[in-house]
Amino acid sequence: SQTIHQWPATLVQPVGSPLSLECTVEGTSNPNLYWYRQAAGRGLQLLFYSIGIDQISSEVPQNLSASRPQDRQFILSSKKLLLSDSGFYLCAWSVGQLPGANVLTFGAGSRLTVL
Amino acid sequence: AQTVTQSQPEMSVQEAETVTLSCTYDTSESNYYLFWYKQPPSRQMILVIRQEAYKQQNATENRFSVNFQKAAKSFSLKISDSQLGDTAMYFCAFVSYNQGGKLIFGQGTELSVKP
Questions:
Q1: How confident is the model over B18-52, as pLDDT tens digits?
Q2: Which of A7, A22, B28, B105 fits a disulfide with A43 by CB distance 3.0 to 4.6 angstroms?
């Protein structure tokens, strides 16, 4: 069966420090991968999505970046965190082809607090 | 641009009763999917139910059912025989058929089931 792992679960970082959140998927190959952010417990905003290694699209301008060094690994990074980067970050995956690509399975999330 | 609106920030229901959560969306697309996701206090996003726009029959999953009104662009969730474990934030989400995985979420409805 497929599983998705996301870490760390909780992170407290000072403003200006770097960030690295990791997400890995097991039990499937060539998944679509996504990073969403949830602010203040409300709606989710898509940040990045990837349909393959080195194929990453950004949805919103920000000081965050994403990388996919391996087929089932997705990393969210920042060189210098801002206060506004605080939030709950969710990784998700879906099967590679439509219509399955529309059904997302989410990781447990990472809570980031920037002080 | 596509939007999803949940007009009820908070709702409560007595255990064993029925509750309906509202969702409306705006799109010019004709082929799309609609979802309800549940986010309990653990913050794990869990798929509750999905509806494909070309299907006229309303989706059901055990105690959960939807009322899909395509012309009105309405997609409400009915929870029957509410249980304490249904306490969670519920998100309505939309994705057009050719935008695999790039879901657009509403702002959520926080549901409390009271004993």
A1: 999 999 999 998 889 999 999 998 888 999 999 99
A2: B105
